[in-house]
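Appendix B. Raw example, untouched.
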Amino acid sequence: TIEFIVGPIENYEDQLYGYKTAHESFILIKDKAWSEKLEKYAAFLPGLQKALPCEPPYKNETPGVDSDMNVYDAIYYAGDCNAGSKTIAINLPNDEQVREDKGSRKLQLKNSMQAKFDKILVPISEVLIAEEQRKHVKFDAFFENTMFHEVAHGLGLGNTIDKSSTVREALKDAYTSIEESKADILGLWCVYQLNEMGEMGEKEMMDNFVTFMAGIFRSVRFGAASAHGKANMMRFYYFQETGAFERDATTGTYRVNFEKIKESMLSLSELVLKIQGDGDYETARKMIEEKGFIREELQKDLNRIGEAGIPRDIVFEQGAEILGIK
């Protein structure tokens, strides 16, 4: 099955209000075997919404149950998605009302994910993750964390609890950073919650926690100016403040604390869901201003990744010339 996606889709390039969208397109081939593994998860969306770690008013919407989740290999990127960091998963549509009424499509681009995992995430873990925890950096955990990031975009509220506006309108220029922060942390929570329900098979949650931590270092190298970058920094410093990890000053490596990262995951999820539900622009801006940038100690660690020759991202060789048809 070949999928073609095209249109003005994402608003990350509009740094003023985040209203304008940029054109992009993908050509994808469906991985039917991997897609079958994911079929059951779409049915859990309403249950995950009800179980969100927040007060009832902040989860008082029902996500569309017609959501489908499939896995693809990407064979062509063009436009916005091929500029800068490369997309590894897609969640469409972005329109809150359409998602609530009709559900959404969540597409995981497995070959792009695998390339980033093998060439970037694993080498980063060998530089910055404590040696005894590197065994927990696994592709399945990376895939799950990425997949449920997209699922989490459909959780929470599309409208403020007083129904005065959409969350997007209320948070204005802070919306995309807060939304990406929500998707990151709730995606991890989704894996945790489904694992607690016995729906993830034989799983060691520490794999997802350590892989998630390594993923922060991978993503933040794209820069803290982007919505994803700010989301990564807010989460990193929140984790630091709550003891979710410790940095060994001697080795310059990071060690995840299982119990504390679990507590941090729950409390940060609740905080972000409340900001969105309240349409609390001031708190959102304050969070971004206080935590949405790279501080000196972290920058030194990121410099070590560069010095090790680890690439920031993958680059595609694609098009007619590569295929030998020109």
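End of appendix B.
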